[in-house]
Amino acid sequence: MRSSSQTAPARNLDQWLEYITATHPSEIEMGLARVRSVAARMQLLKPAPRSVIVAGTNGKGTTCVCLEQILVAAGLRVGCTLSPHVHAFNERVRINGRDLDDSPLCAAFEAVEFAREDTPLTYFEFTTLVALFAFREAEVDIAILEVGLGGRLDAFNVVDADVGIITSIGIDHTEYLGDNVEVIGGEKAGVLRSGQHIVLGPGLPQSVLRRAAELTDTVSELDRNVFYARAADSAWSLRFQDQLFDDLPVARLPLGNCALAIVAAHSLTTIDHVTVSRALRNAWLPGRLESFDAYDRTWLVDVAHNPLAAQFLQNELALRGLGHNVVAVFGALRDKDVSAMLSALDTVVRDWVVVDAPSARGLSASELAVHFEGLSATMAGSLDNGFEVARSLTECGDVILVFGSFGIAGSARRSLALVTRDE
Question: Regarding the domain with residue range 290-422, which homologous superfamily does it belong to in the CATH classification?
């Protein structure tokens, strides 16, 4: 048996992340047996009195953050996971809306390392246990768990959640989940449990709807028995069951995801208009149609990295009256359907600026070039050069959209924040 980490030199957070990356040979290895055995050993299968699990192709993070803010505004102590992070690992584990500091994270890493004994854990399995341990130590009232990939075999699915949310289903991660929405939906529906309150986004495949109906008769589904409407630029309303939330402030997050969060919160605690309004004003996530004013242009930064997310961007930009007048700075990862992403945005983007994606899985601008035949596109290479090209293609007051991956969004945010600060 290996020696316990309690006798090893103390590691800082960066060292822990390097260690768990090197410890397991693969980033992803599907299955719950390993993580469940360690979670049971650490008594983490119920990390909080109540928990919520959130699965889906897109919209998970925004739904989690909005739900977190509502529950915090209602006076509860809330743990929330997000994945992946934009800048720092700390973003993945939140207590009451604040990223967890390095010290409690390192303590959690040490506890997991000691408890796992000889059980091999992937990066995501290890960090899942870190989050669950941190929530238990912080004595949160409710744990919100964002599924990283899939659902049925995701590490967080060792927790039997009280509320299950599925936000959307699209084609992504086909090497792990399947190549059609019915199969992918079946995998994501694996987070649902008998007796849960189940909250579903709109237009989900039959594999999800059938599974939900089999498990419970308390299914809240957007566009079926949950309805929202935007009344004006600064207000919207939500109706479900016998509840009406009228004249709500428009959040910096997609309203559909806010609606799912409100319905889920209502199933967990008492909420009112004041609580929900306060939460909506505070709810935001970096890199979700985040706006920066720099170089006399408006820059919109988004982590959209698959066709479904690109379609969402198209709808949002069209709502803002930006029909075919946006310059897009774009890069993509190797496993994404680039052509479908471009097609989704062809009605709002007039010029494309193509950059290298900053990731081992990223495509270079030259590799992406094959997808841009017939489009107005410039192969810029680096993101900095892409920014210069985008500025040259626009005038004062124009809109530049930067998207394609979490890495691109993170790099763009850093650059634009520096410019905004200097200006």
Answer: Mur ligase, C-terminal domain (3.90.190.20)
**pLDDT band, very low/low/confident/very high, at 10 (cuts 50, 70, 90):** confident
pLDDT at 220: 98
Domain borders along the chain are 5-282, 290-422
Residues sharing a CB contact under 8 Å with residue 418, sequence separation 6 or more, in sequence order = none
Which pTM does this prediction carry?
0.90
DSSP per residue, 33-49: HHHHHHHHHTT-SS-SS
Q: Nearest 10 degrees: CA dihedral of 297, 300, 306, 311? A: -90
CATH 3.40.1190.10 given to domain 5-282: yes
Is residue 147 pLDDT above 90, yes or no? yes
Contacts of 226 (CB under 8 A, 6+ apart): 199, 220, 238, 239, 240, 259, 260, 263
**Under 8 Å CB-to-CB from 55, ≥6 apart: which residues?**
147, 150, 151, 154, 164, 165, 166, 167, 188, 189, 191
Q: What angle do CA 247, 249, 251 make, to 5 degrees?
A: 145
Whether pLDDT at 29 is above 70: no
Q: What is the pLDDT of residues 159-180, one digit of tens each?
A: 999 999 999 998 765 566 667 8
